[in-house]
Write a structure and sequence with these properties.
4-stranded antiparallel sheet, about 160 residues, alpha+beta
């Protein structure tokens, strides 16, 4: 199949690029299909080439050390809560202290976060105590002892 978006990229090279995109389960599935069958269907190849072209146009590459765990992450002054979607992909929600929703989904934020940015439990608790939210679930804390701890009683039992 020839595509004007990525005409010079061979299918094996495209499959290798897909296998490096650990942030996307779809890319991983396509890379696995190529590895298993030695080819991609026409529709799979078209989807892979579109994904590659979009990534190149945005200059979006997976971080060197991608996020593999849910939790709290700090990138510069921004604090993110990483969660897993229903389809198994990681996504990030940025902390917005003055908004109705304390954590707001931010498209593409997961690509800016590295596993090296993960906050320790103590750091997350300190942030939670500072802003009055649970460092695990993001709910408002009401009881003074919980505010000082930076974690709610239910989440504290889970840890």
């Amino acid at each position: 199949m020839s595509n004007t978006l990525t005409p010079s990229l061979s299918v094996p090279a495209l499959a290798a690029w897909l296998s490096d995109q650990r942030w996307s389960r779809f890319a991983q599935d396509l890379a696995f299909a190529f590895q298993r069958f030695g080819k991609l269907t026409e529709r799979q190849e078209a989807a892979a080439r579109k994904m590659y072209a979009t990534a190149q146009a945005r200059k979006v590459q997976a971080p060197a050390n991608p996020v593999t765990e849910v939790g709290m992450y700090r990138v510069g002054d921004d604090i993110y809560r990483v969660k897993v979607s229903e389809n198994g992909n990681f996504y990030a929600m940025r902390f917005t202290p003055n908004a109705d929703k304390r954590f707001a989904y931010e498209r593409g934020a997961i690509m800016r976060i590295s596993a090296d940015n993960r906050m320790t439990l103590e750091d997350a608790k300190a942030v939670g105590a500072q802003v009055g939210i649970c460092c695990v679930c993001g709910r408002d804390l009401i009881v003074e002892a919980n505010i000082e701890a930076g974690i709610g009683p239910v989440c504290a039992k889970r840890i």
